[in-house]
Amino acid sequence: MVLIGTITAVIRAQQGATPTEGLSPLVFLVIPLADMLVFAILIGAGFYFRRQPDVHKRLMLLATISILAAAIARLPFAFLQAGPPAFFGVTDLFIAACFVYDLITRGRIHRATALGGLLIVASQPLRLMIGGTDAWIAFATWLTRWAA
Asked: Pick from 21, 33, 41, 118: most CB atoms within 10 A?
């Protein structure tokens, strides 16, 4: 998943494709690459905690949620045309549902849910900040040329 997702993101940026109009493919490239990083971290942690079912299940679910933004961004709803804040917001609703589930079933939010959810949510504005920097544009340009 991580390898194919990364390669696909780089090739699509090289082709000039972006699901959000008005956003440069090089700037947008930070979003799917960060998706792959966050996904890999959560999957890796899920494997590490495989003998603790309550932690493992939550981390694997959050890993799946962390890559939903790509699918949500491609849905044909007008409000999603607002760009990353819209599709990140919809993704965050799934994290909120996990929090509510924990509160109802456990009386408190599970530590894995809190930390994994925080990783996803904190990475979202960070991606947008990094994507606009000259250093990122230089790196993304190099990456897309290398993939040619």
From this structure: 33
Total Cβ atoms within 10 A of residue 34: 21
Distances (CA, A) of 126 to 18, 107, 122, 129, 130: 19, 31, 7, 5, 6
Write down the pTM of the prediction.
0.90
Domain boundaries, the chain: 2-146
Burial 86-98 (b: 16+ CB within 10 A, else e): bbbebbbebbeeb
Q: Looking up tokens 């589930």, which residue turns up?
A: 101
What is the sign of the dihedral through the CA atoms of 135, 73, 81 and 18? positive
Q: Say whether pLDDT at 80 is over 70.
A: no
Do the Cβ atoms of 66 and 120 come closer than 8 Å? yes
Residue 25: CB atoms within 10 Å: 17
